[in-house]
Amino acid sequence: MMESTKIFAAAICLDLAVCSALHYVAKFGLPPSLSPSGWQSLAQIWMLAGLRWALVRLFCVVLTKPGSKAVLHRCVTAICLLGPVYESGLLVLFEKHPEHWSGSLSSPGKTLIAATATAIASLFWEVNFPDSRGDACGMSNGTERKQRARALFMRVIRYSIPDALFLCGAFVFLAFAVICEMFIPFYTGKVIDILGSHYQPTSFVTAIFYMGLFSMGSSVGAGLRGGLFMCSLSRLNKRVRVMLFQALVKQEIGFFEVTKTGDLTSRLSTDTTLMSQSVAMNVNILLRSLINMVGVLVLMVSLSWKLTLVTFIEFPLIAISQKIYNNRYEKLSKEVQDSIAQANDTAGECVAGIRTVRSFNTERSEARRYDDRIMVTHDLKTRRDTVRAVYLLFSRLVTLAIQFLMLYYGRQLIKRGEMSTGNLVSFILYQENMGSNVMSVVYICGNMLNSVGAAAKVFEYLDREPQVSTQEELQPETLRGHVQFQDLTFSYPTRPDRPALKGFSLEMKPGHMTALVGASGGGKSTCVSLLERFYQPQEGEILLDGQPLHRYQHKYLHSMVAMVGQEPVLFSGSIRDNIAYGLTDCPPGEGAGSCPQGKRPRLHQQTGARVCFGTDVGERGSQLSGGQKQRIAIARALIRQPQVLILDEVTSSLDTESEHMIQQALASCPSQTLLVIAHRLKTVEKADQIVVIDQGQVLEQGTHQELMDKKGNYYKLRERLFSENNSSGSADHSKPPSQ
Ligand SMILES: Nc1ncnc2c1ncn2[C@@H]1O[C@H](COP(=O)(O)OP(=O)(O)OP(=O)(O)O)[C@@H](O)[C@H]1O
Questions:
Q1: Which residues make Cβ contacts (< 8 Å) with residue 132, sequence separation at least 6?
Q2: Whether the predicted interface score ipTM is above 0.95
Q3: Which of 175, 320, 511, 739 is such that its CA lies 20 to 30 A from the CA of 68?
Q4: Last residue of a domain, one of 80, 110, 128
């Protein structure tokens, strides 16, 4: 950077010396043959600029290393071009001839001002549009990114194929509306001309008629185009959302542990919408602006090519300011969105835990926490609005300056008889149109990349293959329910370095009840999760009737292996809906308790549910007690008549009577393999085998009596549990172990 600055300063000095020499030679009239006027001196100015450029460029090339900063060379070129472009503009637009053959900017003072202005402009350019072609690595990254963006965009287009009819119709109406729109300013100018000169009623009526016709055409076309585009947008959006949702629910449980819920919901809502917009909305606006730009340009040039040249000054300024504004505004908007999400999280957390908040008297601190979050959002919004205000001010000033320049120059053209007043009015209307089209194109180009970025995020999840596969097809006619855990080692995806199970082996026979006991965090629930295929063990495997668990068909496995978890989850709807959840052979009119297949137990009795089946359970079962929820969850599992039933601490919220009923229900299915995790002594005692687990390993295994006789871990654990149960007033009235 320092080296480039030094070389640039040296190049400016050299250029200054050359320009000064030329200036003084020209000023003192030497040689006189080189003092023509008009176009000839303009040609000389361009030639001299070319020579200046070659000399200064050579100087820079010699001093810099190969492949060094391209900005230096661009800067030098801009300085050398400034003079000739300025002189050409004066001659073409105002017919003002150059003062002399070296150009009016060649005096030392003006050369220095021109160099400083160019340096500032270049710096501004480089800061806002960093050079990606400078180094090989940047180039390959940039090209790769563009190729990826193109591939993604093409994929979004492929997803839009089912809406091709809507899109084609929309494009036809778009072109129609734009063409009609373009003629309105033309006829406006015509009307003004008719009114301002010799008024002829026929011409006036004809012009007004055409104006009205084109206005109507443009409105009808725009309406139909908008409708068709919106229709294709919402169809695509719906399709992608459903596909994404299907892909997400297929993922393994570990995926949901490492991915934040907010991430998933924003992909489903914001990103899918952005992705759909990339085709329907953006292509719509882009095409409309491009067609409009080309048409308007042709009409502007036909009205006055000189005035068109003047308006060209505005477009780079608009494009650059719009691009800078877009970047800043989008960055701040994203921050605003994030801060709103955080504030919502804070409010949601507080509402969800309102009982805890109330009992700890933290209402005020929670309100303060929310206030802090809202303040962050407020500050960000203020910054975003300031950026918008500055941008609007700048763009209005630029537009105003250009319009002033255009009116000044337009007046000169009218005076010279090169243009009519009506033409000038039409031209100004076209120019405004052109400005807004340039803004739209720049905006859409930026937005397209955003949409493609959103599409990339959506495709990432759409293409993701679940790590726990659900593609296998094994579904034998009968299943005995013989389960073997063989030397399992497993760590959770969020804690890969801390195994939850280490070399874990266990056998569960059909018709037998196995009870897992042990200290909290020992790995009991992990065994259940693996048996439910929520995760894939890293080592070892689980066999069901001698076949690896992963070979069974997904639906078959979950109809044969059912689980009731520690915290049963219910979905909003009636109790009947929740019990029949996922069942297709249960007619909606009949209660779950009267489902076909006589073998099915009478659930309302078994589960002790004293509420009607049609009762609404509320969101996540919030209108039921813990015990009622558990009974419904048990009924939901039992109605499937699973061959392997897992109860993970389910009886913890039940009263003795309900627990007794459930024990009876379980006893009515003698061939079932039952796996129970329980702290209640009565449940454990009845088990055919009790397995004591600690730190992911089996410590002891046997019947209650065998383990009691052994006086090992189970004996100690039971003693502790008994005293805990007693002190907490538990419903368990077992006797203490005999010493
Ligand atoms: N989803 C998870 N991600 C990461 N680690 C987990 C996860 N679930 C459990 N663990 C860890 O795995 C170990 C075994 O947990 P597990 O839930 O199997 O114990 P548990 O014996 O069922 O305990 P409890 O009786 O308290 O329910 C613990 O160290 C726990 O912190």
A1: 138, 139, 141, 142
A2: yes
A3: 320
A4: 128
